[in-house]
Design goal:
This protein is an alpha+beta fold and 219 residues long. The chain is 20% helix and 53% strand. It contains 5 helices and 8 strands. Strands 1-2-3-4-5-6-7-8 form an 8-stranded antiparallel beta barrel.
């Protein structure tokens, strides 16, 4: 895994250097600050997660480098909850979910975190006056906000870790408009400190790679 990370970083540095040579007239970094929001959704079946966050963005699409920092919430959900959750629904289940005999079609929340993400993006190819392809790397710290009491009772332990750490390479498109700027990207989030209790030897809690997409907009 370390060799792969080193190879990815070397390729990123090489891309940056080549872009700098071919487009030396572009600004490296502009201290222009804007504020917006972001949403992402990712999967590591049978678990998936989604987040909403406030975000501060530094830079413009005409820079080589842009920086994002944020504060938000991430929720984790189970695509294949224990059968007894379906057969014996709680009041919240009755209010929020269908009573489907096929438990594979049901979703249950497992827990949530407060997250602090930070990202660096390199706009390596301009594809229009105000649009660029970018490569990026991000890091996310998570702190447990809550966990499902029902999951804790079912598995006999806390399912959420008190904190987690992850990084994620990104690739996407960034553009500026008259009303602000947008970012659409694909990413793979790799947990170096898992969001779930490492002592639980259960497949849905052991996954460390989440693949997903992210949309953001800043004013």
């Amino acid at each position: 895994m370390r060799k792969r990370i080193i190879i990815v970083l070397c390729c990123l540095v090489q891309t940056i250097f080549a872009s700098a040579q071919s487009e030396s007239y572009r600004t490296v970094f502009t201290p222009y600050f804007s504020v917006g929001g972001a949403f992402n959704l990712d999967f590591n079946v049978p678990a998936f997660s989604g987040s909403l966050r406030l975000m501060g963005h530094v830079g413009t699409v005409n820079d080589f480098f842009n920086i994002n920092v944020g504060l938000g919430y991430r929720g984790f959900f189970d695509l294949e909850p224990p059968r007894e959750f379906i057969e014996n629904p709680s009041f919240s289940d009755w209010m929020l979910y269908t009573n489907d005999d096929d438990y594979r079609n049901e979703v249950r929340p497992m827990g949530g975190q407060i997250i602090i993400p930070a990202e660096v993006m390199v706009n390596f190819v301009k594809i229009g006056r105000n649009t660029a392809l970018f490569l990026g790397i991000g890091g996310e710290y998570g702190f447990k906000l809550y966990q499902s009491h029902r999951y804790g009772r079912h598995y006999g332990a806390h399912i959420m870790s008190n904190s987690s750490q992850a990084f994620y390479p990104m690739i996407g498109i960034k553009g500026d408009t008259d009303d602000g700027s947008f970012v659409a990207s694909l990413y793979m989030r790799r947990y170096v400190k898992n969001c779930f209790n490492k002592e639980l030897d259960i497949d849905k809690f052991n996954g460390k790679n989440y693949f997903g997409f992210q949309l953001s907009f800043v004013l």
